[in-house]
Design goal:
The protein has helices spanning 2-22, 134-137, 147-151, and strands at 36-39, 69-70, 73-82, 85-93, 96-106, 115-130, 138-146, 155-159, 163-168. By secondary structure, it is of the alpha+beta class. Strands 1, 2, 5, 6, 8 and 9 form a six-stranded mixed β-sheet that branches. A hairpin with a 2-residue loop joins strand 3 (73-82) and strand 4. The chain is elongated and about 90 Å long.
Length: 170
């Protein structure tokens, strides 16, 4: 009877302490808070993508690798702690159906002083279709950071064409 009482009391105390650990800094799932959205200043100058900016000669070198197009809107940003680092997962909404090769690209010149800035870029398909719901046009991408890379940054920002989402380490 005595052992049963001690086990029951211990189980009750352990179960009651779970609520306190859930919101504490000890829990690695709480190391980054929820992301916040901010509007991004856009360029009002309209560019026609059908007119080339510069012509290339017949004997010029190979074309440069495409950097991709900035996604229209960032809908969600989550930093998930993993063994040996973290995974940055972002969900973006494209302006049309039919995208490929979506990825998070680090912006070197903006990633300084404890801030990591990334852009969600993609390649539009030639058969892209305008329209569709947000769920149909959404894409989820992820990037992995090691613990050493993550130690340099306190704030992680993912940019889109119309907004950016930021999450900060607590």
């Amino acid at each position: 009877m005595r052992k049963t009482g001690i086990v029951l009391l211990s189980a009750t105390l352990v179960l009651a302490s779970c609520g306190a650990v859930r919101d504490s800094r000890i829990n690695p799932f709480n190391w980054f808070g929820k992301s916040k959205s901010r509007a991004v200043a856009t360029d009002t100058k309209e560019v026609n993508p059908l007119i080339p900016v510069a012509r290339r000669g017949l004997f010029s070198g190979p074309d440069e690798v495409s950097e991709g197009v900035l996604i229209d809107q960032i809908a969600d940003l989550v930093v998930e702690r993993r063994v040996g680092g973290a995974v940055i997962r972002a969900r973006g909404i494209a302006p049309s159906l039919g995208i490929s090769n979506a990825r998070l690209v680090k912006v070197e010149e903006a990633s300084t002083g404890g801030d990591l800035v990334m852009e969600l870029r993609y390649e539009p398909l030639p058969t892209a279709i305008l329209g569709g719901s947000d769920d149909q046009r959404s894409v989820v991408v992820a990037a992995s950071l090691t613990a050493n890379e993550l130690a340099e940054f306190r704030r992680i920002t993912v940019r889109g064409a119309r907004n950016e989402r930021t999450t900060t380490r607590r």
